[in-house]
C-alpha cells in the first residue's frame, strides 16, 4: 500500500510539472507576439514620422532662364515630400538677388554672380551653383541667315546693321527684342555676346517665354534666349561657325553661357537646404538637366569667376 501511494504522488508531481511547462511556453509565445507587434508598431510610427518630417513651404524667385529647371525639380521634390510646397516665380535675376537680399524669399535665382549687381550685399549671401546654361541669339525662322560673326552680331544690336539683306539674308528690317534691365540673360548676352557693348533702345520683355513668342511671330525679329527656351518655332544662330551646343559650352568654344546660381541669405537651412541639396543629386544633375538643355557644373572643362575670367580646370 505504501509503495502504491508513493507511485501515485510521483505521477501527480510529474503531471503538475508538465502543465506548468506548457503554461510558461504559451505565455512566452504570447509575450513574444506582443513584443513583436509592439516593435512593428513603433517602427511604423518612426517611419511615418521620418517620411512626414519635412513640411512647410518655401518661395524661390528670380532668373527666368532657370525657371523651367527649378519648376521641374520642384515638382519632383514635392512628390517625394507631399507636405512641402515649393513656390517658383520668375521676374529676372535682378529681382531674385534683390528679394533674397531683403529676406523676402527663401531662394534667389540668378544667372549672374551677386558681385556683379550693384547694391547687392554679396558677402551676406551664400552661392550654390546648381547648373550651367548656354544662351544664343535667336531669330525669326525666315530671316535667311544661319551663321554670323561676332562683329556682325554686335552691329545688329548696336543698330549699325538694319536689314537682313546686309548679311546675305532676306530683304527684311531687323527688329531687335531685348530682355528688360536686370535680366541675367541680358547681362550675360551683353557681356559675352556683345563684348560689353550696350544695345540700342528697343522693346523690352520681362519673360523669356514672351521673347520666344514675339520672335517666332515677328518677321525680321532677333533676340537671345537660354538653350532651355529654344525650340522649333525659332532659329538659333551660329557665331563664327560655332554652334550653340552643350559640348561647345563645356569647353568655352561657345562663349555665351552662365552658371545657374541659387542664393540664400546666410547658409541654407531646413526645407531650403533640403531642396538645394536635391538640386545637386544625381536625379537632377544627370537625368533632369540634360533633358532640359542645362549642363551640370561638373561637366565644365573651364571655370569662370565673377570678373568673367575663364580658366581651364
TrEMBL record:
Presence of keyword Metal-binding: no
Disordered: annotated span: 28-53
Xref: InterPro entries: PBP_domain, Phos-bd, Phosphate_ABC_transporter
Alphabetically, the GO molecular function entries are:
phosphate ion binding
Compartments it resides in? Cell membrane
What are the entry keywords? Cell membrane, Lipoprotein, Membrane, Palmitate, Phosphate transport, Signal, Transport
* GO BP, one annotated term: phosphate ion transport
Keyword Transmembrane part of the UniProt annotation: no
Q: Which Pfam families match?
A: PBP_like_2 (PF12849)
Q: Where is the composition biased (Low complexity)?
A: 29-48
Entry GO terms, CC: plasma membrane
Residues annotated as signal peptide: 1-20
Residue span, PBP domain: 48-283
Membrane disposition? Lipid-anchor
Q: Report quaternary structure and partners.
A: The complex is composed of two ATP-binding proteins (PstB), two transmembrane proteins (PstC and PstA) and a solute-binding protein (PstS).
Function of the protein: Part of the ABC transporter complex PstSACB involved in phosphate import.
Output this protein's name: Phosphate-binding protein
Amino acid at each position: 500500500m505504501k509503495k502504491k501511494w508513493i507511485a501515485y504522488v510521483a505521477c501527480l508531481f510529474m503531471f503538475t510539472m508538465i502543465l506548468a511547462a506548457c503554461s510558461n511556453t504559451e505565455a512566452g509565445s504570447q509575450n513574444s507576439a506582443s513584443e513583436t507587434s509592439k516593435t512593428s508598431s513603433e517602427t511604423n510610427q518612426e517611419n511615418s514620422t521620418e517620411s512626414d518630417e519635412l513640411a512647410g513651404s518655401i518661395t524661390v524667385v528670380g532668373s527666368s532662364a532657370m525657371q523651367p529647371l527649378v519648376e521641374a525639380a520642384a515638382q519632383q521634390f514635392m512628390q517625394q515630400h507631399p507636405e512641402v510646397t515649393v513656390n517658383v516665380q520668375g521676374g529676372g535675376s535682378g529681382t531674385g538677388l534683390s528679394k533674397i537680399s531683403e529676406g523676402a524669399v527663401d531662394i534667389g535665382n540668378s544667372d549672374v554672380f551677386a558681385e556683379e549687381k550693384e547694391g547687392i550685399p554679396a558677402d551676406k549671401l551664400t552661392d550654390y551653383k546648381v547648373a550651367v546654361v548656354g544662351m544664343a541669339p535667336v531669330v525669326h525662322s525666315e530671316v535667311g541667315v544661319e551663321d554670323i560673326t561676332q562683329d556682325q552680331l554686335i552691329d545688329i544690336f548696336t543698330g549699325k546693321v538694319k536689314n537682313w539683306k546686309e548679311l546675305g539674308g532676306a530683304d527684311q528690317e531687323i527688329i531687335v527684342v531685348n530682355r528688360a534691365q536686370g535680366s541675367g540673360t541680358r547681362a550675360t548676352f551683353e557681356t559675352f555676346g556683345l563684348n560689353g557693348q550696350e544695345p540700342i533702345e528697343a522693346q523690352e520683355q520681362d519673360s523669356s517665354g514672351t521673347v520666344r513668342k514675339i520672335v517666332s511671330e515677328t518677321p525680321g525679329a532677333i533676340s537671345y534666349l537660354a538653350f532651355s527656351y529654344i525650340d522649333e518655332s525659332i532659329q538659333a544662330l551660329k557665331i563664327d561657325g560655332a554652334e550653340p551646343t552643350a559640348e561647345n559650352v563645356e569647353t568655352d568654344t561657345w562663349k555665351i553661357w552662365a552658371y545657374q546660381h541659387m542664393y540664400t541669405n546666410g547658409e541654407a537651412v531646413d526645407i531650403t537646404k533640403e531642396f538645394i541639396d536635391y538640386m545637386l543629386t544625381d536625379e537632377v544633375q544627370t537625368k533632369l538637366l540634360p533633358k532640359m538643355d542645362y549642363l551640370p557644373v561638373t561637366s565644365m572643362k573651364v571655370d569662370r569667376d565673377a570678373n568673367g575670367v575663364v580658366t581651364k580646370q
